Amino acid sequence: MDPNRQQPADSFVSPALVQSAAGGDRSAQREIYERTCDLVFRLLVRMVGRQEGEDLTQQVYVQAFTKLEQFQGTAKFETWLYRIARNEALQHLRRQRVRKTVPIEIEPTTRSEPTIEQKEIAERLQAALRQLDPELSTIISLKEDGGLSYKEIAEAAGIPEGTVGSRLNRARRELAKLLKAEDR
Amino acid sequence: MAPHPCQSVQDQLSAYLDGELGTAERHQIEEHLSQCPACDAEWQSFRQLGQLFRESVPAETPPPWESVESRMLPRRLPAGPWWWSTTTAAAAAIAALLLVAVGFWASAPKNQRDRIAQPSEAGQDEETSMAGMAMNAEHMLEFQRTMNDYVAKLSSDPDQAERFLLTKYDGQAVSPDQAEALVGYQPLISRGLPGGYELASSSVVEMPCCTCFKAVCRRSDGSTLVLFEHDDDAAGWFGDRNRSMATCGDKDCCLIELDSNIAATWKEGSRSITAVGARDQGEVTMLVNALKRS
C-alpha cells in the first residue's frame, strides 16, 4: 500500500499506521486492534454468538495482520477488515453445518451486567439473527451496529451497491417476522 | 406500466430509513407514508428494529489484544524488510505443509492413499478431504497458530490448555484402552508411564494433520508434560520456532524451543511421539527409552 495515499475520510486507521503494522510493528497492530475491534467483535457475536465470536475475532486479526500487504488502500481499512470478518464467520458457519447442527444458545455475559430488560432484548434479537440467512445478518449488523454507508456495505459484503437496499429490506422484513413469531 | 406506489415505496424503505435517497425521492416517500397506513406500519417496524439493535449492544467487551498477539506467529528478528519476513514465513509454511503431506501420504493405508490421490468428489465432506493431504498453507498457518496458543496456555494454565485443544479439535476424553477403537492401535502409554509421572487425563483429538492420542501427564512436582502419539511427523506443528536435531537414546529427535521449555518429536515404529513441555534433552532421552515399543 502507498503510505502517501489518502485514506478515505473518517477512517480510524491512517495509511502510516497500516504501513507500520504491515512491517510487523506490534504496537501499530495493537493500535489498529484497539481502534477497530469493537465493531468487528459485535459483528461476529451477532453472526456466531459470544463464545465463538471471541475466538473468531482473534482469528480475524491474526489473518488481517498476516495479509496486510494485500490491503490496497482504495477503500476504508475498516471495510477491508469487515470483509475478512464476514468471510471468517461464513466459513465458520459452513464448517459448523458440516459437523453438526448447533442449537441456538443464549450465552451468558461476562462483563458489566445489563438490565434484565436489555438482556431479554439482546437474547431475542440474537436468537432471531441466528435464524436469518448469514449474509443478511451480516448486512443488517454492518448497517445497524456499524452505521456503514451502502457503498461500504457493498465493499465489505462483496455485493453490488445497487443490491444493498433490497437486501436490507429483506433482512428487516424477515427479522421483524421472526421477532413477531417469538412474541406469540 | 408505472409501479404501484406502495410497491415502489416499499422497495425504497430501507434506503429512505438509512438516508441514502435524494431530497425529491425522500419527499415522495414521506408524502406516501402520511397517506398509507400499511407502508407506514412497515416503516415503523423497520425503525423499531434499529432501536432494538441500539438497546441490545452486547455487554461483553472484545478479547484483549494479548489474546490476539499470543496467536500470532513469533516475530522474526529484523533481518530485512517486512515483506521478507512475510515471504519466508509463507515459504516455511509451505515447506512444512509438504513435509506433513508427504508424511501423511506415506503413512496412510493404501486405500486412503488412493483416495487422497483422486480429485475430491462433489459433495464429499469438506472436513474429510481437508484433513490429511489437502491442508493448504492457510490451514497450516491456522493450525500453527492454534498450537502456538495451546503452548502458551499450557505453561500458564494446563487445564485451560487442554480444554482449548479438546474444544478446538473435537477431542474425546477416553482411557488409553478405549482409545484403541478410535485410533486403530494400542497407545504406547497404555503399558504404563515411567516412574515419577502419573496420567492426569487422556483423549483422542481430531487434529487437522491426523487423529492423535494425547496423554496429559503430571510430574511429581505437579508440572505438566503432554505426550501425543500420531501418524504424521509433526514437522509443521510448531511453526518457525527454533529447532535442532539431537540423538536421544538411540533415536533421532527433533527438539523445538518453546517459551519456557521444549517440545520433542521422534519416530517409534510407524508412528511418531511428540512430547510438549519437556524440560531438557535429558528428560526427552528418558522418555524415548521408556516408551520403546519393545
UniProtKB/TrEMBL annotation, chain A:
Glycoprotein found in the keyword field: no
Keywords associated with the record: DNA-binding, Sigma factor, Transcription, Transcription regulation
Database matches in InterPro entries: RNA_pol_sigma-70-like (IPR039425), RNA_pol_sigma-70_dom (IPR014284), RNA_pol_sigma70_r2 (IPR007627), RNA_pol_sigma70_r4_t2 (IPR013249), RNA_pol_sigma_r2 (IPR013325), RNA_pol_sigma_r3/r4-like (IPR013324), WH-like_DNA-bd_sf (IPR036388)
GO function term, MF aspect, one: DNA binding
Signal peptide span: none
GO BP: DNA-templated transcription initiation
Disordered: annotated segments: 1-20
The organism's place on the tree of life at top rank: Bacteria
Residue ranges annotated for the RNA polymerase sigma-70 region domain, each copy included: 33-97
Chain ranges of the RNA polymerase sigma factor 70 region 4 type domain: 123-175
Pfam families for the chain: Sigma70_r2, Sigma70_r4_2
Stated family: Belongs to the sigma-70 factor family. ECF subfamily.
Protein name: RNA polymerase sigma factor
Organism: Roseiconus nitratireducens
Lineage, uppermost ranks: Bacteria, Pseudomonadati, Planctomycetota, Planctomycetia, Pirellulales
Automatic annotation (TrEMBL), chain B:
Alphabetically ordered keywords of this record: Membrane, Transmembrane, Transmembrane helix
Top-rank taxon, per record: Bacteria
Gene3D superfamilies: Anti-sigma factor, zinc-finger domain
Keyword Transport: no
Transmembrane segments: 82-106
Domain Putative zinc-finger: 6-39
Listed InterPro entries: Anti_sigma_zinc_sf, Znf_put
Protein name: Putative zinc-finger domain-containing protein
